[in-house]
Amino acid sequence: MQDILKTWTDERAESRNAVQTFKAVFLTEQGQYVLARMLEKLKFFEHCENEQDMALNNFAKDLLATIYWSNESEKVNSIQLMNFLKKLIRRTKKCRTK
Q1: 3-state secondary structure 21-38
Q2: Segment 34-89, tens digit of pLDDT
Q3: If you ran DSSP here, which 8-state letter would residue 76 be given?
Q4: How far is 29 from 34, CA to CA, in rounded Å?
């Protein structure tokens, strides 16, 4: 798992094109759905009870940071990220109440 995370970090630092590609994929309506499902599998919304869960959770955080990275300000666009998470939480609550 550590190798995967290191490779991921290297790729992220390697090129701004990677950031643009992630945005092109994950900021679409279908991409947002897939991202939400990935975050569930990566234990993003759960308490981490072991190292494997923590590694998955950290991978999810890095994925979000890549998608919501702002090249202009050289930091994560926290407003855009929070809007996505709010929308995701609302969608999840709707699904659970059906």
Answers
A1: HHHHHHCCHHHHHHHHHH
A2: 999 999 999 998 899 999 999 999 999 999 988 888 877 778 889 999 998 888 88
A3: E
A4: 9
* Cβ proximity of 60 and 44 under 8 Å: yes
- Of 30, 27, 59, the C-alpha closest to 43 is 59
Any idea which residue has 């490779």 for tokens? 7
SS3 75: strand
> Is the C-alpha dihedral spanning 40, 42, 45, 46 positive or negative?
positive
Task: Measure the CA–CA gap between 9 and 63, rounded to whole angstroms.
Answer: 10
CA distance 28 to 32: 6
Residue 19 CB-density burial (10 A; 0-12 exposed, 13-18 middle, 19+ buried) = middle
